[in-house]
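ligand=adenosine-2'-5'-diphosphate
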Amino acid sequence: MNYLEFKNGDKMPALGLGTWKSESGEVYEVIRMAIGIGYRHFDCAAIYGNEAEIGQAFADAFAAGDVKREDVWITSKLWNSYHLKQDVSVGFERTLNDLKLDYLDLYLMHWPLALKPGVGFPKTSDLFISLDEAPLDETWDEMEKIHESGRIKHLGVSNFNSRNLDLLMSAAGVLPEMNQVEMHPFLPQHKLVNYCWDNAMHMTAYSPLGSGDRPGDRIKSDEPKLMEHDIVKSISETHNITPAQVLLAWQVNRGVAVIPKSVNEGRLKQNLEAAEIVLTEDEMDRLNNISIHFRYIDGSIWTIEGSPYTMDDLWEEE
Ligand code: A2P
């Protein structure tokens, strides 16, 4: 396994298990199975609605001696409805309690935008809070306080562009060490990756396989399919591996972490094995330069009419 090393020497396995869309009722078994297969990095979030069940799986795996707490890397994320100063610790405590842990390896601000307390996904614009009312650096400041207490080992963000990162870093005491964003060969994020690396931040790729199982109303019928792209298919044939493994190996080979989601034993195994596959420079180049540009998680749920947020606030398309 490749690892991403942090400033203090901590190491995060480059390939982890994504848990978005892993349903309650099945995610317990998935986590136990994944630990058995050898996964040592788990990516969670309060908004996925499954942290309590995941926490039970961790607790049982630790109790059974399947793995030790210190040998797994666990990430979670602060939901947008906990951005106000007084709410950050509430969101954190809830996650820590649900996951049945006494510390997190990494805690991310999930999105650079705020929602009113109690809101999951806003249907109306009055459920948003603007960044004037809930500045990102104030939310971050509260996250820093928890970090200082030792219950978060590393702090980071998700879905941040370089403008938001600049803003945060200019006010931060503890600098973000991770930015988790959508990345795959249709959205390689070359500029953002270089920006983060220049600023001593690692990157994690979400939706590396295109998240084909996301809610139907967020799927466009004519969207391009990563696993069916000719270049991806031809490299998979050369190595006698699956297209999914090509997509995951590409991420690990370029030095970013990747968190494919699966609930299927065979696919869990093949995804973990992909972290060991070495692609040639020419194959990397071909994957780096695919001409299709496509964002699967387009952020349109945050820009409904009347919302204080625009696409321009969120993304810097390359
Ligand atoms: P499943 O959970 O049934 O394995 P993403 O990680 O980009 O969000 O994509 C997750 C989707 O990709 C899920 O539908 C998942 O289905 C599917 N998936 C995960 N691993 C593979 C694989 N190796 N080959 C094909 N599909 C996969």
